From TrEMBL:
GST N-terminal domain boundaries: 2-81
Keywords (A to Z) from UniProt: Transferase
Gene Ontology MF terms in the entry: transferase activity
Superkingdom per UniProt: Bacteria
Organism of provenance: Parashewanella spongiae
Keyword check for Transferase: yes
Protein name: Glutathione S-transferase
InterPro entries named among the record's database cross-references: Glutathione-S-Trfase_C-like, Glutathione-S-Trfase_C_sf, Glutathione_S-Trfase, Glutathione_S-Trfase_N, GST_Omega/HSP26, Thioredoxin-like_sf
Length: 217
């Protein structure tokens, strides 16, 4: 059977979390790394909105939202139980936390990043807006090893790329910030084999037209 095709951008946090889920679920895909300034016609035909990630499954279903790709991956195989299937309300709770960060935190994060880049006077205020959400994560991580429990979940993989972005805005401040559990949690992912595999650099697909097999080893 033909493998699914994933159009991806290495440093895009949405594409990153899709790759994390594909790797964690043990799925294999044909990875096509792109640049947004030169989008492949093949991708635009299946997903005209032109954003990544885009997954084209073996049966030609097109999934062009990162969270939907994550859920698809774990619906295929979930060897480490990232969806916590034994608890019927677990997925609803995970999606609620993810929605809060996708719909609210992400906007504050973008303002914070722009404030730093353009030396805006609102830098402190924008950081504090982000911190309201980080405080909740710190509280969760003071109670268990991961965001939802003592084992990793969909929520951890969905949020990690954005917390990584936050940590890189004011690096020195972050290293001394009052979020030791969050730092430990993030470092655990950044130093993991999974993250090194997910962030491996491949030739741009348009340059070579050679697909890279990504995922289960």
């Amino acid at each position: 059977m033909a493998l699914p095709i994933l159009y991806s951008l290495r440093n895009c946090p949405y594409a990153m979390r899709a790759r994390l889920a594909l790797y964690a679920s043990g799925q294999q895909v044909l990875l096509r790394d792109i640049v947004l300034s030169n989008k492949p016609a093949e991708m635009l035909i299946v997903s005209p909105k032109g954003t990544v990630p885009v997954l084209v499954t073996a049966d030609k279903q097109v999934i062009d939202e990162s969270l939907s790709i994550m859920k698809w991956a774990f619906s295929q195989t979930d060897p480490d139980d990232y969806l916590n299937k034994a608890h019927t309300s677990a997925l609803v709770e995970m999606l609620s936390v993810i929605a809060l960060f996708d719909n609210e935190f992400k906007g504050h994060l973008e303002k914070y990043r722009c404030s730093k880049r353009y030396h805006e006077p609102s830098l402190l205020e924008d950081r504090q807006q982000c911190e309201r959400y980080l405080a909740d994560l710190e509280s969760r991580l003071s109670q268990h090893q991961y965001l939802m429990s003592d084992k990793p979940s969909l929520t951890d993989l969905a949020l990690m790329p954005f917390i990584r972005q936050f940590a890189r805005v004011e690096r020195q401040w972050y290293l001394q910030s009052p979020y030791p559990n969050l730092r430990q949690w993030l470092n655990g992912y950044l130093q993991s084999k999974m993250f090194s595999k997910v962030m491996a650099q491949y030739p741009m697909w348009l340059d070579s037209k050679e697909d890279v097999v990504f995922g289960a080893e």
